Model the fold of this input.
Amino acid sequence: MLDLPFDLPPFEAGTVWLVGAGPGDPGLLSLLALHALRGADHVIHDALVDPRVLALARAEAVVEAMGKRGGQSSARQSDITDRLITLAGQGLRVLRLKGGDPFVFGRGPEEALALADAGIGFRVVPGITAGIGGLAYAGIPATARDTNSAVAFVTGHGADGEIPDGFDWDALAKGAPVMVFYMGLKHLDRMVARLLAAGRRPDELAAVVCDAATPQQKVVETTLGGLVAAVATAELKPPALLVLGAVVGLRARLDWWRPQ
Ligand code: SAH
Done:
């Protein structure tokens, strides 16, 4: 399979590997992710996995799309876990491939818990999450010594589809110098209003990064107060990351990536 000077763990028949595919660029796959793609009998991927990654699957593998995507008709979570359990029960090597990292806003924990409950062997292969690797492709570090010694990753879309309320927005907005929002476009106006109400300044730097680390990457730099209008003007669409804080200012010098 892979010609390496050390062994990777075997992909056992009848098990599921829950693997992160990173934000886009196939070069960001881990060795374990590539090993899983080369060994899997059946690949079940979500909507965010880049087609160039899927093309690395073994020619004999069945490749099936199954994922939840906000606002679009998509598989129910219970259907996905049932399918993983059924295929593994048939003795197949099942690769559950997710964009970014499976344990960051990716429903990976739910799937792993269902596998654990069903007694199916599984392995988790972390991937590069969009909120770190995708931002890096836009020349925006998650932390930098002179700007922030903390960063918060926040979903803009709670389990009920609304802006999440399971944490203290005011405390987080006051405490996290840099905030990175996943799934932030849907309720953007309400989130911006919350952040302003919590004391974030309207002239604070903000950026939106769409399709990060893919040839379609698009970056808009603005301010917190200008975000809603900037997103509308540029007609930005998901998948998109929002980042708020002084790290955005580093992009002027760190914008290194040019899609081929
Ligand atoms: N598990 C994934 C996140 C899944 S939630 C991870 O670790 O990256 C889906 C959200 O992730 C999208 O709405 C978007 O906010 C973000 N996202 C994932 N891939 C992205 C990409 N290539 N560009 C921009 N945002 C991305």
